[in-house]
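REVIEWER CHECKLIST
Item 1: Sequence provided? yes
Item 2: Single chain? yes
Item 3: Sequence as submitted:
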Amino acid sequence: MTAFAIHDFAEPYIRLKARHHLDEKRLVIIAGGLGKPNFSTDSAVAQYADELQCGIIFKASTVDGVYDRDPHNNPNAVRYTEITYKEAIAQDLGIMDTTAFAMCKKSGIPIFVFNINNLDRLPQILDGDHSFGTLIHK
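Item 4: Structure as written out by the authors:
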């Protein structure tokens, strides 16, 4: 689904239709953000997840989770298997833009950060396997 009219690519985002897909146990992928200026794709994800009452956000990244410092620049970076919103904010880990992260914290929706090269492991993630990334929660 997408907020932009790209009929050959995806159906338009309609909240009730998206909720219906989720109720039917379908995976819903929403592309293109909110279609409004000043909102990042991170903010869009947080907004859609809250609006659709999602149980978790999957954030595919170039690294395999959340680290105490940038693993691209520091070989001694340590990956967290799980971390709270409060800890992530206090350590300024830069997981998502501040607005999006605050929205996730407020709505209480956990975020699972994993490597985009592990998309084939989505069934494991859906089964609750968070061993190969980082779970962020209350």
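Item 5: Key structural point noted by reviewer: Helices lie at 15-23, 41-51, 85-90, 98-107, 122-126.
Item 6: Recommendation: ____
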